[in-house]
Amino acid sequence: MSTQFEIQQPVIAGGWRVLAPFRFREYRLLIAAVSLSIFAEGMWAVVMALQVIELTNDPTALSLVATCLAAGLVAFVLVGGLAADRLSLRAIIIIVEVVNTAVATAVAVLGFLGALQIWHMALAAGALGVAAAFFFPAYSAILPRILPAEQLLAANGVEGVVRPVFQRAVGPAVAGLVIGATFPALGASMVAALFGVGLVLLLATRLPTKPVAIAGDRPQLMRDLKDGFAFMVKTPWLLWTLLFASVFVLVVLGPIEVLLPFVVQDRFEHGEQTYGFVLAFFGLGSALGALGVSSRPMPRRYLTTMLVCWGAGSIPLIALGMTSSFAVMALASFIVGLTDGAGMVIWSTLLQRRVPPEMLGRVSSLDFFVSLAFMPVSFAIVGPLSKVVSMQAIFLAAGVVPVVLALVAIWAARMHRDEVAHPLR
User: Coil, strand, or helix at residue 181?
Assistant: First the structure.
């Protein structure tokens, strides 16, 4: 199955595998813009948490704001997938960047004026979630149209390095240092500036503007969505991976995104800076995991490798809930990031290689929708839950449950047979 469209430049042999996509101008501009946006997203995670803590030191309030972001993403991600298969991919990602810039600017201005309230943060988080719902499917669909199929693993590896380095390491660390020394509104203004520069780079691109042709003479959105859902249900490796991801998100994401800031604040003297550095170690591990996988051919047992990374890699979460040692917390965060980054590069490439190109936007959106369906639930319940259940017990469940889920998914989907029957090396 070919996923290559309108690629004008020849592929040059030789060189380090992960750098091959940079031979293409449009990819260079795209990944530069995406890198700045990811940096901004990494800063926003800390800005959001610390701004809410400054306004009201209550985990329930942070649960509300995080839930709005997650709800915006989940509610619109299917629409984003349909848009990616029907509309101009370049227009989608540019509009997303415009929204991101405007939202971050509004939060910064309100913060400087001293007029920012929790409902402003909730509204901003929801808008950023909606924007992300349109970005993810469009970005996934555009890569196979500007790069040869054999370079998709490398391109996903680059994004797999950039995302943790900037979103989970540099971004949070910079935000923690800036806000610790000043105030959250300054961090929000830096987020807006990064989004703005990314927008300028996207405007300079000449990305594909026409969607892949879809069978049928008229757009039928419900039929398109139904076809994507049917493909997911009848494809065991896809279905069981998404079922795994759904429960994984339910038990893991809430503790990390909502409770970890309070754990760090309670256990360390300089909570803002320490929280940023804990996330930075996660990002460093994720970058190294992505780089390691993308620098080599696709693993022969790619499905099993991916699920083992995500399942066993969650075990160190137990330490995050129990330790008061920064070294132990940093090491645990690093290991979780390492396995997460390795698994995500395999997963992104797997979708782009084994999903028909005319369905990639819809299937990518279904991927995000099914795997993130429980994200708002996780965010919403973990704050109140922490008032009746200990932090240690919550992080213990987050570390153990994914191991069992991964084993069930590998067995139920017969992944060991599927990956042998469909090699991707």
Answer: helix
Cα distances (Å, whole numbers) of residue 100 to 84, 106, 135, 305, 318: 18, 10, 11, 35, 34
Q: Which residue has the tokens 């989608």?
A: 92
CB-based contacts of 160, cutoff 8 Å, min separation 6: 286, 287, 289, 290, 291, 293, 294, 341, 344, 345, 348
Contact between residue 50 and residue 183 where contact means Cβ atoms under 8 Å apart: no
The CATH fold assigned to 20-207+219-421 is Growth Hormone; Chain: A; (1.20.1250)
Cβ-contact 418, 303 below 8 angstroms:
yes
Question: Which residues are within 8 A (CB) of 189 and not within 5 positions of it... i.e. 6 or more apart?
Answer: 104, 105, 108, 112
The confidence score (pLDDT) of residue 388 equals: 87
Q: What is the pLDDT at residue 220?
A: 63
Q: Is 209 helix (H, G, I), strand (E, B) or coil?
A: coil
Q: pLDDT tens across 387-403, in order?
A: 888 888 999 999 999 99
Q: What is the pLDDT of residue 72?
A: 87
Instruction: State the Cα–Cα distance between residues 112 and 118, nearest whole angstrom.
Output: 15
**Mean pLDDT estimate for the chain:** 82
Cβ proximity of 80 and 365 under 8 Å: yes
Chain segment 90-107, per-residue pLDDT in tens? 889 999 999 999 999 999
Question: What letter would DSSP give residue 163?
Answer: I
SS3 of residue 241 by DSSP: helix
Is-contact 126 154, C-beta < 8 A? no
What are the residue ranges in the chain where pLDDT is below 70? 1-18, 208-222, 224-225, 271-272, 370-372, 425
Delimit the domains of the chain by residue range: 20-207+219-421
